[in-house]
Amino acid sequence: MATLVNSVSPLTNPSPETARTACGFFSNVPKFHSFSLNKGFTRVLASTQITISPKDSVLTLPNWKVGRNGTRNREIRLNDAFFHLEFIVEKGHKPDVAQATQLLYDLCKSNKMKKATRVMEMMIESGIIPDAASYTFLVNNLCKRGNIGHAMQLVEKMEENGYPTNTVTYNSLVRGLCMHGNLNQSLQLLDKLMWKGLVPNEFTYSFLLEAAYKERGVNEAMKLLDEIIAKGWQPNLGRVPEAFSIIQNLGNKQRSSTHDFYKGVITSLCRKGNTYPAFQLLYEMTKFGFVPDPYTYSSLIRGLCIEGMLDEALEIFRLLEENDYRPILDNFNALILGFCKSGRTDLSLDIFEMMVEKGYTPNETTYTIIVEGIAHEEEKELAAEVLKELLLRQVMRRNTAERLVLQYNLEALPV
Questions:
Q1: Cα–Cα distance between 31 and 385 in angstroms, integer?
Q2: CA gyration radius for the chain?
Q3: Residue 308 is part of a domain; what is its CATH number?
Q4: What does the alpha-carbon distance between residue 203 and residue 101 come to, in Å, rounded to a whole number?
Q5: Nearest to 125 by CA among 159, 98, 161
Q6: pLDDT tens digits, 2-49
Q7: Is 246 found in the same domain as 224?
């Protein structure tokens, strides 16, 4: 099961002509792929004036989420908010914490990592203590984009300012180093983590062992495992055989399904962001007769997406197909939803095209997820246009479309 947490190569775009012909509704929607979250834009200086308030007051930033639609307009507003933040902090004032944190997230999503890092620094300069989630999110995104050195510098700077780093953040660094072939440096980081009193977890060792296997082969990976166990790590699988026996006996007495019980446990773990224990449980349960169904795989896919492990979620499909398992439509819907909720609607469209090329027919749920994903990216005009086309082609019910119009304040549908 360790192979399920490997990263995969970037998604190769399938032929757009084949997919659009198969799915039907794309052909008449202009510029459906016109927006991209990763394009860089020219730095635009703030044009509006800021009223200077007493230094103890909290100053707000211009709302970069409100205004004319379009990627370029959104990027201009995002940059405008960043330079307002710079001005506020330079003058010794404190910005609104929630706004500054959201700005950090949105800069990361737009691949503006230097600006996002600078936002974190400015928050500290102004006396704000960043929450652990935003700190970990920034480090994780720096590592995913290959900026490991910057991520490590950020961690060092945060620690110098008295901000504690937890195991999750260090795991992002370990994983980033392992992904880029720096196993030795990863092992040094592990020693530093333990020296600080932090306890490595299953994720830490999983990243290291897979990196050792890739770089040095199975024998070296086994040696590393022996060394790790010698340092005191004992993999804990929750006494699965005993648990399975007890649950099976209870299930027989109550005429309930053991399969449904464990499927529910795996689903619950994934919903709470504990996907790795869910994989561990699944792996052990298969030894005792548990056969995962398609909906169990959907839970695992959603769980990986919740934790931001999009490449790993996509990797599941490759592994399943290699083992002669044909995913169902719900599996693809789970993946598309996960990418949309992670702010990568652009990639979810690629998955949609791949799905259609493989012979799957999208259902109303598929289309609903895509429209909602576009609307969440503040592309409301495009969302409304797609929605009208879906109605015209009779692949979505009118009451569903009207719900989306009301929910996302889209342009009214034609009568």
A1: 11
A2: 24
A3: 1.25.40.10
A4: 27
A5: 161
A6: 333 333 333 334 444 433 333 333 333 333 333 333 333 223 223 333
A7: no
